[in-house]
Design brief:
The complex is a heterodimer. Chain A contains ten helices and 50 strands. By secondary structure, chain A is mainly β. Chain B is built from one helix and one strand, in the order βα. The longest helix of chain B has 8 residues. Strand 37 of chain A pairs antiparallel with strand 1 of chain B.
Chain lengths: ~850, ~80
Amino acid sequence: MTHRNLLTLALVAVTTTLAAQVPSAAIDSIPTTVPHTTVPYSIDDQGQKLPDIQWGLDLAWLWDQNVIRGINHAGVDLIDIIRLSFQTTNTEALNGNLTSAQKQTLDERIKIAKKAPNATINLNSDQMDGTLEQVTQYYRSTNSSTQATRWSELIYLTKKYVENKGLKVTSVSPFNEPDYTSWHQGSKADFLAICKKLREDATYSAEFADVKLCGGNTLNNDRALEWYNYCKKYLDEGNTHQLAGSFDNFVKFYQQVAKDGKVGVADELHNTMEAMVASEYGLGKAIWWGTCAYTRSQFMRASRGTRMGYAENRSNWTAASVYRHPSGYVQGFGGTSERQATETTFRFAATDHDVFYNGHGPTREYLMTLPGGTGYQQGQTNGETLVNIQGGDDIMPALPLQATTVRIVSRVSGLMLAPPNNSPTSGANICQVKAAAGNAGQQWVVSPLDPRAEGVDGDFAYYRIANAKNTNLRLSSDRWSITNGDNVFIAGGDYAINHNWTIEYASDGWFYMRNCQSGLYLQVAPAASEATMRNANRNVNMGTFTGKANQQWRLLPPDVKYDTNAPAAPTTLTAHAKTASVQLSWQAPADDDVADYTILRSTDQTDWHVINQGIATTAYIDNTTLPQQTYYYRVRARDKALNLSEPSAAISAAPTGESSCILHVACDSLRDSTPNANHAAVAGTPTAVEGHIGQALKLDGSKQFLQLPPTVACSRDITIAGWFYWAGGNTWQRLFDFGLDTDHYIFITPHNGNNSRLRLAIKNGSTEKYIDASQRLPSDGWHHVAATFGSDAIRLYLDGQQVAASTTIADRPADHPYGRRCAAPYTIICR
Amino acid sequence: MAGDAQHLTPLSVDDVRIYNYALSAEEITHLAGGAHVGINATPHAATATTPSPIYNINGTPAAPSTIRPHQIYVRQGKKALTN
């Protein structure tokens, strides 16, 4: 049969075909593009409890907003430490007392530090802002002894002064970034001499007996061990910054500190990445440079829970992780080196079952792209972000992936967020108004942030919200306010962080929205009574978190009429068991505004999970099932205003598990012709060509592949088969590749790199096992290739003839640790 | 591993099938011969350029006159499935 292009089959047409079918989880499958790094995690596992980190904020950068914003974002209960500096910038001698200038600066810092009442103080050497000499001649080293005397006295007097003002000093870092020699702090010997004096000199030793000494505090993490090791006789804490150096040395530093039984410290975190990575290797204390906004503060909270997944890309200086908050909420985090990262894609992969990412799903995978640069401080954005991962019975409405026009409705009033009279003018305070159909003044264009957009400042887990009548005017904290109760207005001008808002899920379709600049929540101005808060034209401002209805908002399509009347529950739910799936159908309620349905499943009738939502038909195929497992189902109707009905009566069914073909994708379309709706999905846009039977898909070998649903490989015995017209090429190419990572996979390669033969390989975490044919796959036309995994043997077939077999290889797809829970961990890809 | 760029392959793919059991050598031979082994659905042959023979339970081709739209074939010893 000739192999030539017949036509290009637009995959839009394929999708249209699919849409006409009964939906299943597979219909939502969108293959992620090939990532740099995968972050596997199990949504059902408890995760690993890492040692708790003490978190802190910084006053070396003397700006009260850094601390106030940090507290607003993180919550004051998470602020354990304030880093506060002693000043070597004065030219006057001490003579037993701090100078008036030093006291004045300390007073300013102490006042700010007291905004975090639970925090203790870590002293460090002032970096100032470049307007003063970092270390004046008085404090510079003439010899180690003289310098140690002066620095020790300064640190001692600063400690006494701070503690006389009611704060408690718990740690001292004598030098800050001493490897940056332009600041003239001194040598390792000078550092050591100061530590020795604080620890052993009779004047200071009692005062510092319960104070930790911290070093080597280098800017370049490649230098950290050198300074730490030189001084560690006196050190309790090992500290480095990550503004230069290698990933390997960053890791080695924290490993060595932990090995020494000391506390790993990062007293100047510039990105969530540093916290994520250092947490894996011994971090015990972390202080943010600048402040902590959304992603950082969520990571702080999450770190008190458990870590469920982690991956690092050392060459790119990036990392990603999955954590479960103490509250049970799950988030994925991504971060980059402020000065050294290169762009990285991380694929978050749920190994046990489908989940929802920012409300999108059901799916296993989410691709997070982190921005980077091309060299040291060449184009990096200090990018960091997060994604919300859900798998329970209340899944958030999907957050916008591109600019989306909505109305924003208050939960307490049912009124619309808008400028007064729906008239957007620059500087107008925002209020709530009565619904006015079609009036763009009460509509908003919600756009996710591009990490490289103007005014992002690193954290791009935010949205911009522009008025639809004048999209130059954006929702903003009023004149950069960070004060509880201050107004929210609409403004144009340059993009900045006060135009950036979080959209955080509350429950039942409602969200909180928080300003990046202030860390405060959008709210209908509080009042003693809810009746007052329901008044039209009442002011909308920003407030500290209360969780009350006046801080909750729904994002609805602009043509939707808001009401609070939930539809009636669906009726007559039926469940029909198939070989490897369950088909559900139900009767719609009589309500005329039902938009779609939410499908819930349970194995015990107690713990219910949404397996899909937004289903527009009254039928659904659940193909994410185990054979012979009894499942219970309920269905809820959802109206256009996102009101959910009560669940329908429950019904149960168990897939039969009878021996059968459970997936058949003919490649004329991506539709599975078995009853299990295990439809395929494609990455890229392959060309439709004449196939062995009807049409086939031609893959380009660079970006295109065909992805199958992960649950098709959860049986112990399995057959994988297909027709292939291989164009020839490099060794280790693939016909099938069922794999999570480089330790868990099954693949067939047309010719392997060892002996150039057709090979079936399997690896389940131990040594790879394989069987080879006596030849490579011919590249002269269509050939049928099949692999079987049976109770007695694994076998490889070419054109209907067995070409290799083994009765000793015992590994099976279902033997994988996750597979035993039928959650085949495989991203199943046929290419 | 799956999704690894270096292993993406230039090829054409057709008629992909996954079974929840290990097909016998005979069934594989039939499959490679174009049979619809174990498919519990409308036969794919409706769009095929070459009609695929349907096999009876013993693996021999069924006479065309006996083929009904929803006839199912299963491997020997397995329960027949019907729509």
